[in-house]
């Protein structure tokens, strides 16, 4: 599956720049409701009409408006299926114009559907992309008695990047009185093979930094020996086992088998972050704040380690052009330096940009009652 979203890209897109107005446009390409070219064509019509309205309704300078109008003409040409839009199996598209002031269009193919929407703001709106920006790089190693295959990636795409084949002789080739010795030598050779697999994983993980989480697939009778052969540093990132028949499985079957384990790992990570948030807001002087005003204040003080947002939480606000403070009250002067705030369409998006600037992790959760009762926004604090 195709995925153009990376954490680095989100960080760059969300960064506010002086005198820049950005158009963000999301197009749902979910095949379950946009299966025919006419359906897609009319979805493009409708989102472009929304985008034109958003550009005309905003209070923009002459140059910014002209630039965005030009970008919309270009999007009209590029998004239409009749114009041969190459989505390469993407389930959604994100398009940004004006990010660096040039009005060049940046088009991202998305591995999951997104709600169709547009925004015109002082920076790109990236919240719908956050769940698609894999933070962990995964290795799935499929190992049997004589071969191993290594896949690298995430739940959206796991490409085979290497293989090992050790010459272990088949049992069936000999019998009779020599069987016992022969089996002994096979077990030794299998052990040698598992050691080679473990070494390859160690080099890829520790020396080359190619992955941070590991899933293994192996026949049940080999699992104990394989796990025991791993270097302790590699064993420490083992997240579980997958059931895949390695001789038959293509890259997509491997991805599907791994996706459930990766999703469970992600869910556990989110639960742990929510636990920390609840513990932090539930105690005096605890390392947690909740509700947008408190969260924006903590972001301004650069104290945020993890920003938790419920999807669908958006508020207009203002940003101080001098110190970058983001507030829900665009009418009041900056409480830090008295400057007049610039209005922004979404203070939550501006908060996400601040979070990335302080290397905070950003988690966007859906249907999470624990976060909803905390006002849909919370932050685990570093201090
Ligand atoms: Zn200020």
List keywords for this structure.
Translation, Eukaryotic Peptide Chain Release Factor Subunit 1, Chain A, Nucleotidyltransferase, domain 5, alpha+beta, 5-stranded mixed beta sheet, 383 residues, 4-stranded antiparallel beta sheet, 3 domains, 10 helices, binds zinc ion
Secondary-structure blueprint:
Layout: H1 7-14, E1 22-28, H2 37-57, H3 62-79, E2 92-97, E3 105-110, E4 117-121, E5 138-143, E6 147-153, E7 158-165, H4 179-207, E8 213-217, H5 220-229, H6 232-235, E9 238-241, H7 251-281, E10 288-290, H8 292-300, E11 304-310, E12 317-319, E13 326-327, E14 342-344, H9 347-357, E15 361-365, H10 369-372, E16 377-381
Helix pairs in contact: 2-3, 8-9
This protein binds zinc ion (ZN).
Overall description:
The chain is an alpha+beta fold. It has three domains: 7-132, Translation, Eukaryotic Peptide Chain Release Factor Subunit 1, Chain A (2-Layer Sandwich); 138-266, eRF1 domain 2 (Nucleotidyltransferase, domain 5, 2-Layer Sandwich); 287-381, Ribosomal protein L30/S12 (60s Ribosomal Protein L30, Chain: A, 2-Layer Sandwich). Helices cover 38% and strands 21% of the residues. It has helices spanning 7-14, 37-57, 62-79, 179-207, 220-229, 232-235, 251-281, 292-300, 347-357, 369-372; strands spanning 22-28, 92-97, 105-110, 117-121, 138-143, 147-153, 158-165, 213-217, 238-241, 288-290, 304-310, 317-319, 326-327, 342-344, 361-365, 377-381. A hairpin with a 4-residue loop joins strand 6 and strand 7 (158-165). The longest helix has 31 residues, at 251-281. Residues 320, 322-323, 325, 334, 336-337, 339 line the site of zinc ion (ZN).
């Amino acid at each position: 599956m195709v995925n153009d979203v990376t954490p680095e890209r989100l960080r760059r897109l969300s960064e506010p720049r002086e005198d820049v107005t950005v158009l963000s446009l999301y197009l749902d390409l979910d095949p379950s409701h946009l299966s025919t070219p006419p359906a897609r064509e009319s979805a493009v019509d409708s989102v472009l009409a929304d985008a034109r309205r958003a550009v005309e309704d905003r209070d923009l300078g002459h140059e910014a408006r002209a630039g965005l109008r030009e970008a919309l003409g270009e999007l009209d040409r590029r998004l239409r299926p009749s114009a041969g839009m190459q989505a390469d199996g993407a389930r959604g598209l994100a398009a940004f114009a004006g990010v660096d002031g040039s009005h060049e269009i940046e088009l991202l193919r998305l591995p999951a559907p997104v709600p169709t929407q547009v925004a015109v703001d002082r920076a790109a709106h990236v919240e719908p992309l956050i769940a698609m920006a894999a933070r962990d790089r995964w290795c799935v190693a499929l190992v049997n008695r004589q071969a191993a295959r290594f896949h690298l990636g995430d739940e959206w795409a796991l490409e085979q990047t290497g293989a090992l084949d050790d010459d272990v002789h088949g049992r069936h080739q000999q019998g009779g009185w020599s069987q016992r010795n022969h089996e002994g030598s096979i077990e030794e050779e299998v052990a040698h093979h598992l050691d080679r697999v473990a070494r390859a994983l160690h080099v890829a993980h520790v020396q080359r930094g190619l992955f941070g989480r590991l899933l293994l697939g192996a026949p049940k009778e080999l699992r104990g020996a394989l796990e025991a052969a791993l270097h302790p540093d590699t064993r420490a990132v083992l997240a579980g086992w997958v059931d895949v028949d390695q001789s038959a499985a293509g890259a997509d079957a491997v991805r599907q088998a791994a996706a459930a384990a990766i999703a469970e790992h992600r869910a556990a990570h989110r639960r742990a972050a929510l636990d920390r948030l609840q513990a932090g807001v539930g105690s005096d002087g605890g390392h947690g704040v909740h509700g947008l005003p408190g969260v924006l204040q903590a972001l301004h003080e650069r104290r945020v380690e993890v920003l938790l947002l419920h999807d669908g939480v958006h508020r207009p606000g203002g940003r101080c052009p001098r110190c970058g403070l983001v507030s829900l009250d665009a009418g009041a002067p900056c409480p830090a330096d008295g400057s007049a705030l610039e209005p922004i369409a979404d203070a939550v998006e501006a908060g996400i940009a601040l979070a990335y600037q302080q290397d905070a992790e950003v988690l966007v959760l859906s249907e999470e009652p624990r976060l909803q009762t905390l006002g849909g926004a919370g932050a685990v604090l570093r201090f």
